[in-house]
Amino acid sequence: MVITGMRHFENVCQKKLVEWYHEKRPNTPIDLGDVFTVWSCKTLQNYKCLVSTTISGDGIYAEYTFNGDKQELYEDVYGKITNACHTEE
């Protein structure tokens, strides 16, 4: 895999999340229009990107890391476990 820039990397990550849904959650209709980048950065030859979806109540987000030395893309997919509000220490 060769990444040619940040926008290319973000596109690859968004496509990978759609592929993940098609494989792991085949009953959830999703396409690229439902996926967005939350945050991304490039440090030296490595890239990192957090992507999520507009699917209401889903709570899924994915973290992608591209190792430029090995030309490998790593995928970690997470789900929201809880949502709490704290007003005191």
The description of the largest β-sheet is: 4 strands, antiparallel
- Which whole number gives the mean pLDDT? 94
Tell me the fraction of residues in β-strands, as a range. Answer: 35-45%
Specify Rg, calculated over alpha carbons. Answer: 15 Å
- Provide the spatial order of strands within the biggest beta sheet: 1-2-3-4
Helix % is 10-25%
Structural class, from secondary structure content? Answer: alpha+beta
Strand/helix succession: HEEEE
Q: Please give the alpha-carbon distance between the first and last residues.
A: 46 Å
Number of helices: 1
Uncertain stretches: none
Q: Which word captures the global form?
A: globular
Total count of domains: 1
Work out the number of β strands.
Answer: 4
Describe this structure in words.
This protein is α+β, with helices and mostly antiparallel strands. The chain has one domain. It is 21% helix and 37% strand. It contains one helix and four strands. It has one helix spanning 6-24; strands at residues 35-43, 46-53, 60-67, 72-79. Strands 1-2-3-4 form a four-stranded antiparallel β-sheet, covered by helices on one side. The longest helix is centred in the N-terminal third of the chain and has 19 residues, at 6-24. The chain is globular and about 40 Å long. The model has no long low-confidence stretch (mean pLDDT 94).
Topology diagram in text:
Blueprint: H1 6-24, E1 35-43, E2 46-53, E3 60-67, E4 72-79
Antiparallel strand pairs: 1-2, 2-3, 3-4
